[in-house]
Amino acid sequence: MAGETSGPRPSEQEIRMVALERKFDELLSFVQLIAKRNPDDENQRKEDDRDANNEEPEGHSNANTTPPPPTPPKPEGKDTQLDSKIDSLEEKIRLMQGLLM
């Protein structure tokens, strides 16, 4: 009959395999294209970095360049509970370090 091909028809699994192989080849080609472009991009990035180092830093011309005011000193009162906890933890750390050596 017209339109029929001779020989066995490919199975559904074979059809899927061919489709997957084509997709894989397309993906591989894309990755290779990206890999070829990457060195060019890296060279351009290095040039941009060199140019940026020679230019003045970016920012607003009215940016505040003065340092922030110093933080006020903490009150003199000690928190004995916190201090004892810190001492306890420091001792545990020293013990652990001694065990590891």
Task: Please give the largest β-sheet.
Answer: none
Helix content: 55-70%
Strand content: under 5%
Q: How many helical stretches?
A: 2
Count of beta strands? 0
Write the layout of secondary structure elements.
Blueprint: H1 12-54, H2 80-100
Characterise this structure:
By secondary structure, the protein is mostly helical. It has a domain at 11-55. It is built from two helices and no strands. The chain has helices at 12-54, 80-100. It starts with 11 loop residues before the first helix and ends with a helix. The model has no long low-confidence stretch (mean pLDDT 75).
Provide keyphrases for this structure.
single chain, 101 residues, mainly alpha, 2 helices, 63% helix
Can you describe this structure in just a few lines?
The chain has 101 residues and is mainly alpha-helical.
